[in-house]
Amino acid sequence: xxxxxxxxxxxxxxxxxxxxxxxxxxxxxxxxxxxxxxxxxxxxxxxxxxxxxxxxxxxxxxxxxxxxxxxxxxxxxxxxxxxxxxxxxxxxxxxxxxxxxxxxxxxxxxxxxxxxxxxxxxxxxxxxxxxxxxxxxxxxxxxxxxxxxxxxxxxxxxxxxxxxxxxxxxxxxxxxxxxxxxxxxxxxxxxxxxxxxxxxxxxxxxxxxxxxxxxxxxxxxxxxxxxxxxxxxxxxxxxxxxxxxxxxxxxxxxxxxxxxxxxxxxxxxxxxxxxxxxxxxxxxxxxxxxxxxxxxxxxxxxxxxxxxxxxxxxxxxxxxxxxxxxxxxxxxxxxxxxxxxxxxxxxxxxxxxxxxx
Length: 357
Known about the structure:
The chain has one domain. The protein is built from 17 helices and no strands. It has helices at 16-41, 43-52, 61-91, 96-103, 110-121, 129-138, 143-155, 158-168, 170-193, 202-205, 221-256, 259-266, 273-281, 288-300, 305-317, 320-326, 332-356. The protein is globular, with a radius of gyration of 23 Å. The model is unreliable at 1-19 and 208-214 (pLDDT under 50).
């Protein structure tokens, strides 16, 4: 931290240090970005050369699956690192208390929109559901507004959007963003209008929190860049296994699952494909980083975009582990309402995507 504060200003002895530290951090970051692009540009030829060295029949299913894995693994890891670093810097401007204070007192409607937008850029996932839920409810945040945030935070995070943009194009990412926000906003609004606060667990309704009045830390540029690096270490450390699992699943689908089979099961002509995809996705558990490579392969194989994205949304927003966590603060009837409302929204997105694309 610098030696400056609002009361005393900066002493001559400490003023140069933060400047040099910021300059070094910015220079190192720019050099890292240049290196990132140089490495990223060489991934395909390197993967092809490495795959050619393996004792596999050229053009065979195993060779195609291995080549896909060798190329997509570093590609997704690099994309993930860049996106997470950028959002780590952005997140240095947020905190759990600041988020809670921003949502408290928001009216329904406007509050749902604000909460869903805030969910995109704040560092919370379904694992944070319990402490966030308690904090939001105790701070006076309406129940529906809270649900809009909790739906948007895991489902429309920067990892999903960044990887979808990089792998499938900006149109798919923008459409996912728009309809994901719609699900979060409308679902939260509907839950809020049902007036179901009485279905919270008794101990949650009994919680009363004091006003939020915490000083905000003033970070230097170097500290914000360091926050980005820490986010990369933290998030990659937690999701790299899921990324590998997702890419491995994608490689198996790419190499062995026939295109016509997937088109028949997950194509737009099969009206039942969307509800089946959502039903399959709910018991599963993964995150956006692990799901996007699977989505990429399914779409390349001919699966309908709406069906695939409905599957992805159900895995991320309605996963069994998240529901078990939420059960600690929601009664069974309220949890059922949450699943039903969000599930209907995801089904609507799937059918609409299939009709438009």
